[in-house]
Structures are given as C-alpha cells and as structure tokens.
Design a protein that fits this description.
Blueprint (H helix, E strand, L loop, with lengths): L13 H9 L24 E5 L4 H6 L6 H13 L7 E4 L6 E4 L2 E4 L4 H18 L3 E5 H9 L10 E3 L7 E5 L2 H6 L3 H16 L4
Parallel strand pairs: 1-2, 1-5, 5-7
Antiparallel strand pairs: 3-4, 6-7
Helix pairs in contact: 3-7, 4-5
Bound molecules: uracil.
C-alpha cells in the first residue's frame, strides 16, 4: 500500500524533496540500493528531463545520469543545443533496481508498483520546479506521468499533456540507443533522439 507523507511533512523545496528521497522506504528497492538518487539541477530550470531509474554508477554516486547512459544523453543534449547544467535531471524511480549477475549488478526494469510508489516524488519535483518543458525519456517515465498506454515505440515528439507542462516531449531512453547492435540503426535512432530533444528549444 502506498501512502503519501502526512501533510505537515510535504516537502516545499527541491532540497527538502532530495533529503526525503534519500531516506525513502515507500517500496522495497532501498534494501538493495546504496542510496536514493534525487534530481539535480537549478531550481529555476526551464527544462525538466525524466529518466527511468538510477543505474550502477548513479547508485554509487547518488546523482542521476553520470554513467554510460548519462554520457550519451550529454552528447545528444549538446547536439540539440541544450546546456545540461541549466536543465533539471531526475528519474521516475529513485532507487536502483538490480539483480546479481556474476560480479555485476544487472539492471532490472522497475515494476508498476515501484513506479507508483515513487510517483509522489516525481510529482513533487514537477510541481516545485514547474518547468516549461518536460522531456520524458522512455516508457517508464511515460508510464509514470502519462499512464501505461503510452509507448515510445508507437509515438514520440510533442505530446499533448498541458496538466504537466506547456511542452511535453516523449522520446527514447539513451539506454535503448546503447543497446542497439546495428550501427546504422543506432545512428538513425540517435539522430531522431536529437531531433526530439530539439523540440525543447523554443
Ligand atoms: N538511466 C536512467 O534512466 N537514469 C539515470 O540516472 C541513469 C541511467
């Protein structure tokens, strides 16, 4: 069962949200994670970018998008003309979900219950920041804020969701690009990713 924090405990700043995320136990993922990973970025960011969940590096460093997917995102943002430092980056789920595979911690997709449990944090970040542009990277971010019917393989680009932000962009997750084995397809998808991100620049 998911319960919101009592009213008096509602966070009223991004810093406070970050502190509460670090200590969050709303689902079981904290058990195997190093720490909760809150969003980072300026409190007056115009663009908010939402990923899936922290990966191995992010879990160790406590910051979003610092591993391989983050590096690819950095390249794409630079090509799209977006300064990463001026955007607010966060995830739909704030703890790393993984399973041991030999010496590595293999990423596992968060389930519907974990996405729901974490959604109040994402909504708190969104309402505190009130960005003009919201960029959803992949299906987990889309599922959290738009519902389970939305799939990035079926639609991408500008999405009509004025209750979230005046411009909402749905695009692929950079990990999807990292997984592509066909170099040509990877390049085509990367170009499309940049084109989607450019929609954030108005
Ligand atoms: N993938 C994500 O969705 N978020 C991160 O922070 C890192 C990898």
């Amino acid at each position: 069962e998911i319960s919101l924090p009592p009213r008096e405990a509602e966070p009223d700043s991004l810093d406070e949200i970050a502190k509460m995320v670090t200590a969050c136990r709303r689902c079981a993922l904290w058990n195997n994670a190093t720490c909760g990973v809150p969003g980072v970025g300026p409190g007056d960011a115009r663009i908010m970018i939402v990923g899936e969940q922290p990966g191995d590096r992010e879990d160790l460093e406590g910051k979003p998008f610092v591993g391989p997917a983050g590096q690819l995102l950095d390249r794409a943002l630079a090509e799209a003309g977006i300064d990463r430092g001026s955007a607010y980056l966060t995830n739909a789920v704030k703890h790393f979900k993984w399973t041991p595979r030999g010496k590595i911690r293999l990423h596992q997709k968060p389930g519907a219950g974990e996405i729901e449990a974490c959604k109040p944090w994402l909504l708190a970040e969104l309402s505190r920041l009130a960005p003009q542009v919201l960029v959803l990277l992949g299906n987990t971010a889309a599922r959290s804020l738009l519902g389970p019917g939305v799939q990035v393989s079926k639609m991408h680009g500008l999405i009509e969701a004025p209750h979230l932000a005046s411009r909402v962009i749905l695009t692929v997750h950079p990990s999807f690009l990292l997984r592509q084995v066909d170099e040509m397809k990877k390049e085509i998808e990367f170009r499309q990713f940049i084109a989607d991100l450019r929609l954030a620049v108005v």
